[in-house]
Amino acid sequence: MSLPLHVESLSVRAPNGRLLLTCPTFSAAPGDVIGLRGPSGAGKSTFLYALAGLQSTMSGKIDWGGTDLAHLGDGARARFRRETIGMIFQDFLLFEELSALGNATLATAFNGADKRRSIRKTAEGFLERLRVPKDRRTVDSFSGGERQRTAIARALAHDPAIILADEPTASLDRDTANALIADLIDLTRSEQKTLIAVSHDLHLLEQMDRVIDIADGRLLSEAALA
Ligand SMILES: Nc1ncnc2c1ncn2[C@@H]1O[C@H](COP(=O)(O)OP(=O)(O)OP(=O)(O)O)[C@@H](O)[C@H]1O
Known about the structure:
With 226 residues, the protein is α/β, with parallel strands linked by helices. The protein has one domain (5-222): 3-Layer(aba) Sandwich (Rossmann fold), CATH 3.40.50. The protein contains seven helices and ten strands. Strands 6-7-8-3-9-10 form a six-stranded mixed beta sheet. It has a four-stranded antiparallel beta sheet with strand order 2-1-4-5, with helices on one face. Strand 9 (210-215) and strand 10 form a beta hairpin. Helix 4 (113-129) runs antiparallel to helix 5 (144-157). The termini are far apart. The structure holds adenosine-5'-triphosphate.
C-alpha cells in the first residue's frame, strides 16, 4: 500500500487553546524520505503526532491517500494508525513484563493467522538486524539502546505504509544507527512507503530526499544542509 500525504491549512492547539503549530501546505509522495529538524520546543513532535492522528485539537486537512485523519472519529483514527502507521517515538512504551519478541509482535493481537505469521517473521528479522538480545529476558532489564531497537522492530513489524520517527537514532551507537538509517531508507524506497523522521543526526539528515526546518510552530522552506 502506498499513501501520498497532503496537509492543508493545519493548525494544532494545546488543550488550553494555545496555538502550537500551523502548516499551510505540505505534501509527500510514496517513496519519499523526509527529515524534520529545528530547535527544542519548535513543534517537531507536535507535527509528527498530528500526522499520526494523535492530536485531538486540530483543524485543517491531513490526507493520507484519501483518508483525512483530521476529520476521522477516534476509533477510525486508531484503526488507521494500527493498520498503516509505524511510530518510532521517544517514549518507547514497551511492556516491561514481555520479552523483545513479545513486544515486537504485539500487533499479532489485532490480526488474523496469515498476517500474524508475517508480523512474527518481520519482527524476528528486524530484531536480528538491529542486534537486539535474543534471550527470553523481559525488556525491563534492557539498556536504553536495546529498548529503542525493540521499539523500532515493533513499529515496523506490521509492514506499515507510513513510518513516523522521532529521533530514531538517539540512543544508538554509530554503527547501529547507520544500519538502521540504511534499513529505513531501503524499506521506504523499495516498497514505496513514506518515512518522515525528526532528527538532529547529520548522517540521517544527509540521506533524506528533503529536510524541512520547523521553528516557532511553523514549517519553513526546505533547508540546505550546512
Ligand atoms: N499538550 C500541550 N499543552 C501545552 N503545550 C504543549 C503541549 N504539547 C506541546 N506543547 C508545547 O508545544 C511546543 C512544541 O512542542 P514539541 O514537543 O512539538 O517540540 P519539539 O520541537 O519536538 O521539541 P524537542 O526537540 O525538545 O522534543 C513546546 O513549547 C511544548 O511545551
